[in-house]
Design goal:
Distance between the termini of chain A: 38 Å
Distance between the termini of chain B: 27 Å
Number of helices of chain A: 11
Number of domains of chain A: 1
CATH superfamily of chain A: P-loop containing nucleotide triphosphate hydrolases
Helix content of chain A: 40-55%
Number of domains of chain B: 1
Largest sheet of chain B: none
Oligomer: heterodimer
Strand content of chain A: 15-25%
Order of helices and strands of chain A: HEEEHEEHEHHHEHEHEEHHH
CATH class of chain A: Alpha Beta
Largest sheet of chain A: 6 strands, mixed
Radius of gyration of chain A: 18 Å
Order of helices and strands of chain B: HHHHHHHHHHHH
Shape of chain A: globular
Largest interface: A-B, 34 and 29 residues
Shape of chain B: globular
Radius of gyration of chain B: 19 Å
Chain lengths: 281, 265
């Protein structure tokens, strides 16, 4: 049983909750460029944590390190109490990851995609069919399970990817820009699925976004990233009230970084983003 | 995990290999058009190149006609050519995002690479089937004994696994499709011509001969000559051919598994 989540970070209960993701001075350098600069972060069990920031702020690089895809240059990190450097395979067994790109295979059916994940995560043969059926039902794709994913809508693909990443019931789910390119209805559906996962299974969720309304609506706490640094971490309400009575998260961001959120991004960021919008339909 | 029995861990490992290979099988079954268009190339070599070269007197082969000599070489060539562009398919999967999902799974990297290698064997076998049919039509005397057919299947599978894994290693190094296209062409031709596929090794100048002896394709062809043709003989022995190909495959898989994570960095 997971404890009910308290949304108020000042509550003393908060400090006692188990920390699931912990980093200290986590740094990634590419040559002379520092993509992630000494990030120290702790995310509690059952929390939905959002990293917000413009393109190129280092959000994706941070997620890639935490999902063991990228080796940090310096610093420490642990997930579910396991050191990131000590045993990547143990970490991988405990996390799920929905990348910004489309990780579902368009040339397979929804069912086949889940079957592949079930085998990769070694879900016992006897349970496999039940686990897949449950996962499909949870994301409301049971009727579409035998259709090729290339004929799915963008929202359906994202839901399938979440089901894929959750099949082995990981302690932490990482999502990189989960609703980029989705229409408002599909976005809200994805948000609702993420909330359900947290509420029903107690999954800790860390996601990146550069959409302030998403951070506001979905996240218990947010961290603002800019130029590789994690500048400020708090609840959306606390961040806003620190700036002024009617402040929005956009105002918070501008006040903290001196930049508008929409500005920035390299050619490759923009290309990748458009690509991902296109492939999501 | 540590206290699980060896058998349980082996089963997990095989399941993970199967996960990767099975998705490839399913995709090939759904859209076999690529397999069919690839069959054109060996046909061109056997019919156009083979029929003309058969009339060149200097090309003395150990026994039988030049076409007999050529057919196993062309089979090995089509195995090589269909496997060597495997790397580009993996780069494509990386660009889509499909590869990331395999990389964050707890499956050992060697299982992911073995899965791909295994799937590539199916492509090779389809090529092999086409070359056999074509060779029969051209009057080449094929050996269809059970032992020889099993040997051919094993050799084709091994060759496909080896060259697709080699291709994967290149993909991990060059990382982009454009660069791969360039380098794929540059590598395929020397592997093909610096082997015993279309002419006997004895015709080669010594420096080329020593390259051919170090070229795994030579052993693929040598083994196929023994099992594909009636009364076929090997130069190095079937056991040696298989052992060399298997060893090269294992080494390639280990290298590829080491480099594989570079693609999703």
């Amino acid at each position: 049983m997971m404890p009910k989540i308290l949304h108020d970070a000042t509550d003393p209960m908060f400090a006692e909750k188990a920390t699931v993701i912990e980093t200290k001075d986590l740094t990634k350098e590419f040559g002379s460029f520092t993509a992630v600069n000494a990030v120290t972060l702790s995310v509690n069990a059952g929390e939905i944590f959002g990293l917000i920031g413009p393109n190129g702020a280092g959000k994706s690089t941070l997620i890639k390190m935490l999902t063991t895809l990228l080796h940090p240059t310096r610093g420490q990190a642990s997930i579910a109490g396991i050191d990131l450097f000590a045993d990547p395979a143990q970490i991988r067994a405990r996390i799920g990851y929905v990348p910004q790109l489309v990780s579902a295979d368009g040339n397979l059916t929804g069912y086949e995609n889940l079957l592949m994940s079930a085998r990769l995560y070694d879900i016992p043969h006897a349970e496999r069919e039940d686990v897949i059926a449950d996962a499909l039902a949870r994301v409301e794709l049971s009727d579409a399970k035998d259709r090729l994913v290339q004929h799915y809508s963008g929202g359906m693909i994202r839901r399938l990817e979440i089901a894929q990443a959750m099949l082995h019931k990981p302690a932490v789910l990482f999502l990189d820009e989960p609703t980029v390119g989705l229409d408002p209805v599909a976005r809200h559906a994805v948000w609702q699925h993420l909330r359900d996962l947290r509420d029903d299974i107690g999954t800790t969720i860390l996601l990146t976004t550069h959409q302030m309304d998403e951070a506001d609506a979905l996240c218990d706490r947010i961290g603002i990233m800019h130029a590789g640094r994690l500048d400020s971490v708090d609840t959306p309400a606390a961040l806003k009230s620190a700036i002024g009575p009617d402040a929005t998260l956009d105002d918070v961001f501008a006040a903290l970084t001196g930049h508008d959120l929409v500005a920035g991004g390299t050619l490759s960021n923009i290309r990748r983003e458009r690509q991902s919008v296109r492939s999501h339909g | 995990m540590a206290n699980r029995s060896f058998l349980a861990r082996l089963l997990t490992y095989l399941t993970q290999i199967h996960a990767v290979a099975d998705t490839e099988f399913r995709k090939l079954r759904r859209d076999p058009s690529e397999l069919i268009t690839r069959a054109v190339q060996p046909a061109i070599w056997l019919i156009l190149f083979g029929e003309v070269m058969a009339n060149v007197r200097g090309l003395s082969t150990d026994n039988g006609s030049y076409l007999d000599f050529l057919a196993p070489g062309i089979l090995a060539q089509s195995v090589l050519f269909s496997a060597i562009f495997y790397g580009i398919a993996v780069i494509w999967e990386r660009d889509l995002g499909v590869l990331h999902r395999q990389m964050v799974s707890p499956a050992p990297r060697t299982a992911l690479v073995f899965g791909k290698a295994l799937a590539s064997g199916l492509r090779g076998l389809v090529q092999g089937f086409f070359v056999y049919v074509l060779s029969a039509l051209l009057g080449i005397k094929l050996s269809l004994s059970l032992f020889d057919l099993a040997g051919a299947i094993a050799l084709i599978w091994l060759g496909s696994a080896l060259f697709s894994t080699f291709s994967l290693i290149i993909a991990c190094i060059v990382k982009t499709r454009d660069r791969f296209m360039g380098i794929g062409q540059v590598l395929t031709m020397p592997i093909f011509f610096a082997s015993n596929a279309i002419y006997p090794i004895d015709l080669m100048p010594p420096w080329l001969k020593s390259i051919a002896i170090g070229n795994p394709l030579t052993y693929e062809v040598d083994g196929l000559r023994a099992v594909m043709l009636q009364g076929g003989v090997t130069r190095y022995g079937l056991g040696t051919d298989v052992a060399i190909l298997a060893a090269a495959t294992v080494i390639s898989v280990l290298i590829a598994a080491r480099l594989y994570p570079r693609l999703t960095e």
